[in-house]
Fold this protein.
Amino acid sequence: MNKPIIELKDVWKIYQIGHVKIPALRGLSLSIHSGEFIAIMGKSGSGKSTLMNMVGCLDIPTKGRVNLYGDDIASFTESDLAQTRGKKIGFIFQKFNLIPTLTAFENVMLPMIFQGIPFEERKKKAQSLLSMVGLSERSAHRPGELSGGEQQRVAIARSLAIDPEIILADEPTGNLDSKTGKMVMDLIIKLHKEQKKTIIIVTHDEDVAKYAQKIKVLRDGLVIGQKK
Amino acid sequence: MMWDYFRLAFKGVKARKIRSWLTMIGIFIGVTAVVALISLGQGLQDSINEEFNKLGKNRLTVAPGGGAFLGPTSSNLAVATITEDDLDVLNRINGVDSAAGVLSKNARLEFKDEVDFINVWGFPTDKDGENMLEGISFFEIEKGRQLRSGDKYKAVIGYSIAKDTFDKEITVGSKLKIKNKIFEAVGIQKKAGTGVHDVIVRIPLETAREIYDEPEEFSTIFVLTKDGYEPADIVDEIKKELRDSREVEEGEEDFSVQTAEQTGTQLNQILDIVNIVIIGIAAISLLVGGIGIMNTMYTTVMERTSEIGVMKSVGARNSQIMFLFLVESGLLGLVGGLIGLILGLGIAKLGELLAVSMGVEIFKIHVGGYLIVGALLISFLAGTLSGLLPARQAAMMQPVDALRKND
């Protein structure tokens, strides 16, 4: 296989709460290659969300290296990190995290606004993405008027707006019933198979994790095992 | 691109309607007051300047006590008097072309069994009186003629008195009673619109002296200076001569001499001070409004912490978040300013209509482009500046912390 696009080497993340230092990651190492579908499993407090934040450039490690396409994100400026998030990574959150004052259509356009993409192009892209997730008719609705499953599909469309290579999904089905959860997972699988996206999914649900090619199991801030 | 930020900011403002309105009220009350006061004040200043320019620089007034250029009415209150003796003194001064004294009295005017109380001016009908009327639009005749030498118990009627005061209109040839003496209207004045000259009745000075039994006194003396003389020098000369003849010390004059220009300048100075006070009020109210915006923006940033996290996670840079919130606070200021501007102009216009309905038709509000642009620009800037700290706080948030907010 080629060089990994994401490479974590001996990554530590220590949170300081008052005088107490709490290590969330303790020397974790992990490599992810382009086009992989990886699930990260672990109980709450195992460090899986912290790991997700590192990979997503939302946070930088206390110690160790997180290399994204060969660059150490610790050396990035805040603006570089934002650029990387905006261009390379699509996020899908457990709580959907749509902007409540914007319509589904506008939510999908939002990442493109920050990239300075012209309106006509944004519009076309947002329309095609909403139709891909089957929500063309709901595009003028605000998140409050959409069901949980619909909101998550809008969020998936949003994560694809800037054509990222990497999709990070943090408990994408955590707030959905099993039927809509299945629908969302089908979409994510489709992204992997048809669009060759690199998918990293954080979950504690075996049923979700089983779709992945590899399952990494975390405990106490370390990878303690790999299924598959 | 700017447009997108404006749209996003507008949605943010719209989503919190009540709070946004309350915040904007903080801005627009100040702007309303300032815009209304400035356009009224400027209008007043313009009208006054226009009137004094019309009068010309070579006109002076001499009045007992304090000066009153537009008319002799207020001199009724003064204790000291000016008389025919003073007029003689004035007529002897070099540089004085002509001088004419006016006696003004409040009078009971009766017309076709209706009664009203108005202001009667006893106006000289000699050559000096004619000189005085020449070139002053306030006293021009619409119908009939001016008073002339030899007239007795004739009257020239102010426009409003002729048209509006009584049920029936007074026309040339109408008979009316002043102090129970019968007068014949020989002329009707044109509309002056000054608020003073439309509500007087002019009668010959000798007739006024007769019916009021005032053989000597004047309310005001109007003076025309000769060409080639500086009016201000003539003022000094008049003061000196009158001090001598009236035996008063310099600085203790019981009369006043003013040029049209001086009176105008004095009024302008007062209005300038009023303007400075208005600008002070504006500054304070904008400061208070700005603090209101800052408060609102801090609350908004707090409330939308997780949204900020989301925007950062989809690639918004710190500068873009900062800009977005600055536009939002600027928008609060700008819309507040716009509402204030419209309300302020509306109030000023009402003031103008009120003034016109009270007979001051020369009064027009002055709405300068600088006022419109200034009001909008300053309120936008006040909004933006007030948003600076809250927007910075939003921009500097760590994306992880911000996202965690909604857990």
